[in-house]
Structure formats: C-alpha cells, structure tokens
Amino acid sequence: MDESGGSGQPRSGTDGATEHPAVPDATTAHPRPDGDSANDDSRPDSTDTTAPNGPTDTMAWEKQSSSTRRSGRTGDAAGPSAAGAPAGERDGSMESAVARRGGEGTDGSGPGGGGPDARPPAGSGGSGPQPPPRRKGPGGGLLMGRPFGVPVYVAPSWFLVAALITWVFGGQLERVLPELGGARYLVSLFFAVAFYASVLVHELAHTVAALRFKLPVRRIQLQFFGGVSEIEKESETPGREFILAFVGPLLSLVLAGLFYLALLTVEPGTVPGVLLAGLMISNLIVAAFNLLPGLPLDGGRMLRAVVWKITGKPMSGTIAAAWVGRALAISVLIGLPLLTQSGALGAEAEDIGGMDTVMDALLAAILAAIIWTGAGNSLRMARLREHLPELRARSLTRRAVPVETDTPLSEALRRANDAGARALVVVDAHGEPLSLVREAAIVGVPEHRRPWVAVSGLAQELTDGMRISAELAGEELLDVLRATPATEYLVVEESGEIYGVLSAADVERAFVKAMARPS
C-alpha cells in the first residue's frame, strides 16, 4: 500500500517527529489494508493579497491607529499595514497583544509555537540567540535499509503479526505435514518473512513509480496489516495517479505468477510446495483486495484517477472513490463473516466453530475500520489541498519595526506601537536584518525591567531558512517552514526589502481554519 491516500496511493507524508512542533503538514497519509494508518491536516481564510497590505495580525500596544509608510530605516515599520488585519486585531496595543499571549501561555500551540524552539521566556536581560533544533529523521521502527535511497522501517507491530502468522500457519502445517513436528514453526516463520518481503516488493513498485514521476518518498514502513509507502506529493495528472496506484497490485500479481511457475517444479505435499502455494495465494489475495475500487485502496486511487480524468476535477474523483470506499467498508463488515459461515471461502460450514466465528468477525471489523478511516482521511486531505493555495505568506505576515541591537525593549515596543506593528526585527547600523525578537521572550520580561533590557538579548539569530519570500503560498510555504522549524520568520520581497515577520502560530491558526470550512 502506498500512502497518499491509502492502499496503493501515494501519500503526502507527514514529516517525522521533530523536536520543534511541526508546521501543519499538507501531506496525505491514510490507512489501508495492505498497510496501516496515516494522517492529515488544514488551511486559512482567504484574504485579499492584491493590495500591498495584509498581515493577519498587527502588533499595537496602545489603542490607537496609525498609517506609516514602509521603510528600511530603523524605527519605521516594514510590512503590511494594520488595515489588512482582521477585525478585533486592528485595535489594541502590542503590549496588550503580548499580555494576551502571556495569559494564554507561551507554549504556542502552533507550528513553532512550542517545543524546544519555543524556549522559556527570557527574564531579566533575556537569553541570547540560540539556533533552531535539528530535525529528527522520519523514524517509524527498525531501519532495515535504504533501497533507491528510501528508508525502509519495520514497525513493532510487525513482530506481533509475524508471531500470529507463525502460529496460524504452523497449525495448518501440522495437518498437511505432520512429520515436521516442532520444526513446522520454523517453516511458518520463514513463510511470514517471505510474505512480508512480497509486501515490500509491492511497496517498492509504488516507490519506484513515484520517484520516476519526481515525487519525493519519505519512507516505506512494514506494519501489522502490510506496508505503507509514504509519498509526500500527489500526482499532477490523472494518468500518473492511475499508474502510481496500479503498479503495486500489478507487482503482487507478477509475484503470484512467479510462485506458481516455481510450484510446478517441485513435488506437491513437500515443504517447498506448501510454501510456494501459500505465497502464491497470499499475493493473489493482496492484489485482489487492493484492486477493490474504494479509497484508501489502490483500486480506489485508480477509480479517483478515472473520475478525475472524466470530470477534470480531482476533488470529484476523491469524493466518488471515498464514498465507494465507505460502502466497501460496510460490505466487508457484514459480508466477510457471512461468506465464511456459508463455506464460500473454502471451509465446510459444519467445521466452523464458535472461536472461528469470533475471529472472522474481529478481522472483518478491523479491515472495515481501516477502510472507513482511510476513506475519511482522503476526503479531509482533498479538502485541505483544495484550500491550501489560499495560505499565503504575504497575507499572514505581521507588520514589523526594525530596531538596532542596543535598543531598549521599552523603546522598541513604543516604536512598534506608534507604527501599528506586531513584530520587531533587529538590524545592524546599515539596516541589514540580524535577528528576530521572539514574542515569547517579550512576555517573560516584566514591564519595569524593559528599559534596561536590550532587544538583542531576546532575539533569535536569523538563518538562511528563516528568510522566506513574501510570494510563497500553499504547500510550498509549508514545506519551507517545515524545513527550518522556528517561531518567527523574516518575510522579504524579491528585492530583498523587509516585508514583515511571519509567526508560525499565525500559520497554525490559519491552517486549522481550513479544516473547519466546507469545500
């Protein structure tokens, strides 16, 4: 299963755990039966970005309005004007805004608002600049290798399912090959490993196709119910989407054919014969199940591509395939136990005991839950992607005031208040930006200490990743912010002129609004 929507779908992967709270992830991650789970996220209200003004929040510290021109001179505000701020944010002072933040806590639930990068507020004098924490790798279990440069992990849940397969298959071997004795469990363990090697081939097919289409793949993970290929972007065309989904089941069918050909060369009723027959059947089941036409399965992604091609709208394809997936989940929940009870799956009805009935019902419930959840995740992620282009750095940027390194905090706040700004940029004598004053640090400085605290002691030194273009929008903006986790970013025009400061918490709030809005 490839994850950009579930079984056989490229997934726009969520980045792995980072020490800094992650910027909202626009990647798709959905559970699917040949793999486990995945996840999703959101976008902001649309704002007019045609005007040169437009940050969502303006930083003001006293109840007054002001119109100040943008300038690179120390003390003049840079960036969008307060007129672009939403209602409720245009009035009030920066100090009142800081006070509100202090009342809410400084953990900053937004991306970059908490964690190690949201360091404890500075007290008297504050703390010096500190570099942002280094991001961790994607993780996800035991690293087995990096085929094609993509890390392959075995999740802890795999060991549980390997033990379960060993026990169940060992019981079947006792009836077919009783002479094996206790060695049957070693044969069963080999079957479990070989089966998951087949699942890995299925996932590598998705991965190779994604890399061929220049779609980044975050990782492959082998889990309880199979495998997941976490593809971080969605296909640009329905044709590529179809191919990306189809190659997984196709490889499973090819493997089943190869095991069948190998089966013809060995004696039936032997250990090799039983193993090859089991692997042939299991790969046929994986292929057939993933070809069912509902998200998050590969077949659902293929159906989405077909509807997308016909309508010209990827959202229409997602809606159709997701609802088929939900119908499929209900069918599995009800139909699988009924088929088992009727003997349609091979066992005689009179040989089916009470425990078998319970296990069948449990398996059906788990599979149905995975399919239903994956279909819902696909719908949510499609809605997010539909709204992501409205997430613009220019419209979310806070108006900023440049101040020199030795400027007292109280004076810097006064200038910001006069300019109707909500951010401070520390510059050198030539007006070149050096660092950003962290809002969380300002909160920790008592008012009576502010005349003696220099802004440089409360600032985060600017790195290359903390300078972003005012033209960034949508998923490209999120990718840039995730690459360098921080609480604030300096937003600049193409000319290099300071436009303002983007708070990661503002991005978080705008991102969350997207999930609450209908398509």
From TrEMBL:
Bias-annotated ranges (Polar residues): 47-56
Biased composition annotated in UniProt, kind: Basic and acidic residues: 31-46
Biased segments, Gly residues type: 105-116
InterPro entries attached to this UniProt entry: CBS_dom (IPR000644), CBS_dom_sf (IPR046342), Peptidase_M50 (IPR008915)
Keyword Endoplasmic reticulum: no
Keyword Cell inner membrane: no
GO molecular function: peptidase activity
Cofactor field: Zn(2+)
Residues of the CBS domain: 396-455
Record protein name field: Site-2 protease family protein
Domain of life: Bacteria
Keyword line: CBS domain, Hydrolase, Membrane, Metal-binding, Metalloprotease, Protease, Transmembrane, Transmembrane helix, Zinc
GO biological process: proteolysis
Segments of skewed composition (Low complexity): 65-87
Location of the protein in the cell: Membrane
Pfam families linked to this entry: CBS, Peptidase_M50
Transmembrane spans: 150-169, 189-211, 242-263, 275-297, 318-338, 358-375
